[in-house]
Amino acid sequence: MTVNEIIKMIRKAGCRKIREGRNHEIWLNPATGVTFPVPRHGGKELPTGTVNKILNDAGIK
Q1: What is the C-alpha to C-alpha distance for residues 47 and 61, in angstroms, rounded to an integer?
Q2: For residues 34 and 46, what is the distance between their CA atoms, to the nearest angstrom?
């Protein structure tokens, strides 16, 4: 799964970007108050573990 696909999914789930770092964006899940990083690599494929962690923190999985 690519970063662009993940961002579409977490936006749809109600998460929002709170700030940008050098290599990552920091997102917030307002329902749980959990913040989590999302790498800024556009169309690049991410490792399965990274995808699962992001989706879990976003409350999707």
Answers
A1: 16
A2: 21
Q: What share of the chain is helix, strand, coil (3-state, %, to 5)?
A: 35, 30, 35
All structural domains of the chain: 3-57 (3.30.920.30)
| CA angle at 9 for the pair 3 and 40, rounded to the nearest 5° | 20
pLDDT tens-place string over residues 2-29: 999 999 999 999 999 999 988 999 999 9
54 CB neighbour count, 10 Å cutoff: 24
Q: Which residue has the tokens 């169309």?
A: 43
